[in-house]
Amino acid sequence: MGILSNNTASRMAERFRGFLPVVVDVETGGFDAEHDALLEIAAVPLTIGADGFLCLQPTVSTHVEPFPGANLDPRSLEITGIDPTNPLRGALAERLALDHIFHVVREAVREAGCQRAILVGHNAAFDLGFVNQAVRRCGHKRNPFHPFSCFDTVSLGGLAYGQTVLSKAVLAAGLSFDSREAHSAVYDAERTAELFCKVVNRWRQLELLEQGQLGLDAA
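^ Ribonuclease T, sequence as received from the core. Prediction below:
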């Protein structure tokens, strides 16, 4: 991850009041963050150009070993296609998985001149709940994410495109979505990141249009 220019870092820090948006998707063994396993996590830090438009930074991801005693709902595993017993997953224990993700996020926060990361997700409370619960289980002291604030692309997709389902919102935004790749943490995180950037950048385009109109009116 390259070092951002001072101007770019300042622009990102100012854009979201000192928070760096980082898109996160988790795949799990169910819907209960306290009792069901965290099985995959992917994070996509965002950056901003000199023109004020957001774009994606490289994705960081890992498979995660179920914590001792974790529930694994067969219906969830059928949807995700994850086999937690497959040794080829290369899964990390929860603490190591968090370390792996958080290190990259903290680095991105520092380079962007921000104070903290803010989680962006599709149904973000779900992803944030699993991250927070894993943090509590591990006693992790260096969680870079705000503990309860987040940006939710369900709301943003509904506002901008009238669609709340991820695949439909992505397609409505003029992006591509392959349903065969869905329910992979990396794929869903990257599509969510593209959707978030599309909505925020659409707003930036409106700002520039209004500024141009004001300039014409002043002339």
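Residues 185-218 form the longest helix (34 residues).
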